[in-house]
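TL;DR need structure tokens for one chain.
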Amino acid sequence: MNGAIIDDFVTGRWRDPESGETARSPVSAILIAASLDGREGDLIVPLGLGRRLAVVADEHTVEVMGRRVACALKAVAQVDLVVLKNPHADIDTVGEVQARTKAADGLIAVGSGTVNDLCKHATHLDGRPYAVFGTAASMNGYVTGTASITEGGFKRTLASHTPRGAFFDLTVMAAAPLRQTRAGFGDSICRTTAQVDWLMAHLLLGRRYMEGPYVLQAEDEVPMLDQAGEIAAGRLDSLAILVRMLVLGGLGVVLPGTSDPGSQGEHLISHYIDMLAGPRHPGSLHGEQVGVAAMTMNRLQHALLSMDAPPRLSAMQIDRMAMSARFGALAPQCMAEFEGKAMGTAATDRLNAKLADFWPDLRRRLRAVLLPQARMRQAMDAIGAPMRAADIRLAPALYREAVLHAREIRNRYTFLDIAADGGLLEAFAAGEG
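>> reply
TL;DR here they are.
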């Protein structure tokens, strides 16, 4: 199994397969164990977070683990317990975290996506260190240097900083709602669709690409797929595989310093939903949406890569009036992102010529890293994860809209762009939802 690779990465022994250089880990300590009960102080003290610490949890995670962590740390530091009520990962709540923890030298997040991102970004803004005790295997952002924060109604991936330590008590995580574990599975299974999109943009457009993030995950992905049912059943050794995949996915983002390795077309669809659903949003989790969108992207990638000849692309058309109506106050930001990848007639002609010449090799390269559809469905079904928009109570019309227009929100060139500019996306989207 892949347990040692995390230790190798953290201690500077892991070498990037392309450059041959050892990776520099910004995280000082990562531990995944059956139980961490009674070890919290021993884990935190070496990190040097300061003499006064704030343990930050929400109203659920404070009962699950927050009080336990705060109590254990009182033997080694002055501790404040800060409980957030129904927090949202937005810039206002980041300010609340800063205000309520201003007396602390360092923060300890006890929670998963929202609590971690809030503490991560709050401490990044004011230069304090933080650590995290994860309470659910729900997402892969525990050890990344970015945070997903809503600002001005626009969900943004903001530069933040990594925790000095990240600790995972599998007994606690196994007791988390199964829905959260399924969400984490969805956030991991998108490795395949993200890699295909990122590699395609590299091969066709010369955009930066790295193999290292996927090498990190390679050894654990097959066991994770094979043991999806056991993960759902809460078996600790199987859950450990999922947690390693989530951690390694996060460390993979550390390598390029961007979210590109794990966030492509499937994440654009999820972000579009979060940005524009408004009152239509069903309250689905990030990983649930990503899992559903990854199924969509997998179908789209398979459909295009099964074609004997490449689609003939037309120059990107930016309908400013339609985008203004669609995005409202967010339209200028979206237009700026979309314009960053827009190609005129001459550039599109060159791309079509390259596609015509390179198509057999491109298909071979991309299909080699694309997960078979049946394999993906089997694993998602085994863990009971949602696979269609209806499974997360998302209106089919809204989901089809997301598939059609998600490409407009980020300057990332994905198979959504290939399909749209090839005149194929509208028909494909009609069958989704």
